[in-house]
Automatic annotation (TrEMBL), chain A:
The name this protein goes by in its record: ABC transporter ATP-binding protein
InterPro entries linked to this entry: AAA+_ATPase, ABC_SmlMolc_Importer, ABC_transporter-like_ATP-bd, ABC_transporter-like_CS, ABC_transpr_FbpC, Mo/tungstate-bd_C_term_dom, Mop_domain, P-loop_NTPase
Lineage, opening ranks: Bacteria, Bacillati, Actinomycetota, Actinomycetes, Kitasatosporales
UniProt keyword terms in alphabetical order: ATP-binding, Cell membrane, Ion transport, Iron, Iron transport, Membrane, Molybdenum, Nucleotide-binding, Transport
Residue ranges occupied by any ABC transporter domain in the UniProt entry: 19-249
Residue intervals of the Mop domain: 299-363
From TrEMBL, chain B:
Gene3D superfamilies in the cross-refs: MetI-like (1.10.3720.10)
NCBIfam families: Mo_ABC_porter, modB_ABC
Role this protein plays: Part of the binding-protein-dependent transport system for molybdenum; probably responsible for the translocation of the substrate across the membrane.
Topology versus the membrane: Multi-pass membrane protein
Positions of the UniProt region annotated as Disordered: 1-26
All copies of domain ABC transmembrane type-1, residue ranges: 75-276
SUPFAM superfamilies from the UniProt entry: MetI-like (SSF161098)
PROSITE patterns xrefs: ABC_TM1
Transmembrane segments annotated in the record for this chain: 30-55, 75-101, 113-135, 147-175, 204-222, 259-278
Protein name per Swiss-Prot or TrEMBL: Molybdenum transport system permease
Organism domain of life: Bacteria
Length: 364, 286
């Protein structure tokens, strides 16, 4: 973050004793609903609050921003207690779900709004805003009103606006929900890069497991106002603790380098996909797309065939999820009948295969 | 619409003109007479008086009428006081509208009801009430008089006060409605960017609701321009000081009807201009 910035903003947010990063216990009581969530994150972390609608994710985000008061609990950012600080004085930036760009201001003035409010002069604020728009690749759209921006552009302006106040905590509410499927892939990759560059804590709220897994280092799954599970995307995908999570994160997700239809996964093996891409990509497929064999299937081609070992088995309803290690760590779903026929047990060695048509690759 | 399935239509009209009319009426397909007749009477009732005003207008002497000192004085006074009353309504009414739309306080609904009271209150009663409050012996007026030597009744300031009293509710209600329709989350977004609640109002909310404020201001201005009852009660009828257009019209009708008609025409023109200015807001059928 080499952008020009004034020092007055930092003066209002001293960094006294206490660990850097976020340390929050958010309790919000509302009629018939109680949110009780603990969140911690170190600078540079990207944490995703994942959960069904009405789970309290957005309430948690609003509490972090100061838009909803805490009933109980605490909120410390870089060691400074913020629970009694009004939203305008918190070093917190928010990207709202539908961006809420001020319709009467140009993209540049939207971004300059924050620095202006935090004490920068008009010219200085605009210089900073222009630098942020340039970072987002939007220099050519500085004078454009929000309604003339595409969804992806508006999202980046909203991100620039939130970052321009140089927050120590960046909050994103369903950052990709307002985009159509095609734009979404592209914007997700961009957003991932920007979040990776951001040196302070990011917390994003989403109900889309894929967004959460791609964007976040750590997932906090919230149901009925409580944290039901917490961990890395891989952890949670392997060991879902509730049916909701199992359904939600029913995905095998890998990073790799694509060359045409073949993707060399960081985990080792090559996987063949329907998409034709090049460069860093994600590959995802659901556990139900995985087929298991005890013996190497003779007729099958060698593509997308891996030798694995059963590390664990879990029953989920009438399904069994097999946790596999070996050439490629995998989660596979199969029926109880199939599991019995295969005589699956922890330690059993199996061959796993997945059809190229059931994988999805997209740029990282 | 075509006459294929209506033999009567084909047989009836001979020339092109009635035929077209007939087809046009047929498009409304069966407006029942018990509705159509009263509707037409209502239309005539509303439009005929205005038409009469135009028919009887002293068109040839109109330029002289409008440039006579009394007319000019009244017109000038009306424009100045109505504009001043609108300004007062804006400065005080917009914050009141914000308070009603954006905050919760005990008795808010009661306050809102009281604000709208002048909308339905006979203006004369408003004038009497103003006299009792701000008159020389009024509840507040006596202090204004003895402490500051300020007398409001029967002054031009009094006219502005009377007009603002009657017009401000229009503005407040209009702006409050616009505020309620506007997304309050824009203010939240501004707050997270470091704006105080007032800065958020000034730099985000105000520009967003500007069209609503403008419409409310025009409405209030039109109401102030036509104010009669409260003005004559509280401010009297002194040419050049408190005699506004409506008062001048009323007075002129007794000894110089042509002047009254001329003044009325001016007010009619202003009203039509206001309506044209607000057409997008108030005249869209939906």
């Amino acid at each position: 973050m080499t952008n020009p910035h004034h020092t007055t903003a930092d003066d209002t947010h001293p960094h006294p004793q206490g660990p850097p990063g976020l340390d929050a216990h958010l309790v919000v009581d509302r009629s018939g609903f109680r949110l009780d969530v603990t969140l911690t994150a170190a600078p540079g972390d990207v944490v995703a609050l994942l959960g069904p609608n009405g789970a309290g994710k957005t309430t948690a985000l609003r509490a972090l921003a100061g838009l909803t008061p805490l009933t109980e609990g605490h909120l410390r950012l870089d060691g400074t207690a913020l629970e009694d600080t009004p939203p305008e004085s918190r070093p917190v930036g928010v990207v709202f779900q539908d961006y809420l760009l001020f319709p009467h201001l140009s993209a540049l003035d939207n971004v300059a709004f924050g620095p202006r409010c935090r004490g920068a002069g008009k010219a200085e604020a605009r210089t900073q805003a222009a630098a942020w728009l340039e970072r987002m690749g939007l220099s050519g759209h500085a004078g454009v009103k929000p309604r003339r921006l595409s969804g992806g552009q508006a999202q980046r302006v909203a991100l620039a606006r939130a970052l321009a106040t140089r927050p120590r905590l960046l909050l994103l509410d369903e950052p990709l929900a307002a985009l159509d499927a095609r734009t979404r892939l592209e914007v997700r990759a961009q957003l991932r890069r920007h979040l990776a560059e951001f040196e302070a804590v990011s917390v994003l709220v989403t109900h889309d497991p894929l967004d959460a897994m791609v964007l976040a280092d750590r997932l906090v799954v919230v149901e009925h106002g409580r944290v039901v599970q917490e961990g890395t995307p891989a952890d949670i995908a392997r060991h879902p603790r509730t049916d909701y999570i199992a359904r939600l994160v029913g995905l095998n997700l890998y990073r790799g380098q694509a060359a045409g239809h073949a993707v060399r996964l960081d985990a080792g093996p090559v996987i063949t996909t329907t998409e034709e891409l090049s460069g860093p990509v994600f590959v995802a497929f659901p556990p139900s797309a995985v087929t298991l064999f005890r013996d190497r299937p003779s007729g099958a081609s060698a593509r997308n065939l891996w030798r694995c070992e059963v590390a664990g088995l879990e029953t989920q309803g009438d399904q069994i999820r097999a946790d596999l290690t070996g050439e490629l760590p995998l989660a596979a779903d199969l029926t109880t009948v199939a599991a019995a026929e295969l005589d699956l047990h922890p330690g059993a060695s199996v061959w796993a295969t997945v059809k190229a048509t059931q994988t999805h690759a997209y740029p990282a | 619409m075509t006459s294929l399935d209506k033999p009567g239509v084909v047989a009836g009209p001979r020339s092109g003109r009635p035929r077209r009319r007939r087809v046009g009426a047929g498009g409304r397909r069966g407006v029942p007479l018990p509705l159509l007749l009263p509707a037409l009477v209502a239309l005539a009732f509303l439009l005929l008086p205005l038409l009469a005003l135009l028919v009887r207008a002293p068109w040839h002497s109109l330029p002289d009428q409008l440039t006579s000192t009394e007319v000019w004085q009244a017109l000038q006074l009306s424009l100045v006081t109505a504009t001043a009353a609108t300004a007062v309504s804006l400065v005080l009414g917009v914050p009141l509208a914000w308070l009603l739309a954006r905050t919760e306080f005990p008795g808010r609904r009661l306050v809102r009801a009281l604000v709208t009271l002048p909308l339905v209150l006979p203006p004369v009663v408003g004038g009497v009430a103003l006299l009792l409050a701000l008159g020389r012996n009024g509840v507040i007026g006596q202090w204004l008089d003895s402490w500051f030597g300020i007398t409001l009744p029967f002054t031009t300031t009094g006219v502005v006060i009377a007009e603002a009293f009657v017009a401000m509710p229009f503005l407040v209600i209009s702006v409050e409605g616009t505020l309620r329709a506007a997304d309050p989350r824009y203010e939240e977004a501004a707050t997270t960017l470091g704006a105080s609640r007032f800065t958020a109002f000034r730099r985000v909310t105000l520009p967003l609701i500007a069209p609503g404020i403008a419409a409310g201001a025009v409405l209030a201005w039109a109401r102030a321009l036509g104010e009669f009852g409260a003005t004559i009660t509280f401010a009297g009828n002194f040419p050049g000081r408190t005699q506004t257009m409506p008062l001048a019209v009323y007075l002129a009708l007794q000894n110089d009807p042509e002047a009254a008609i001329a003044l009325s025409l001016v007010l009619l023109a202003v009203s039509i201009a206001v309506l044209a200015g607000l057409r997008d807001r108030w005249m869209t059928t939906s």
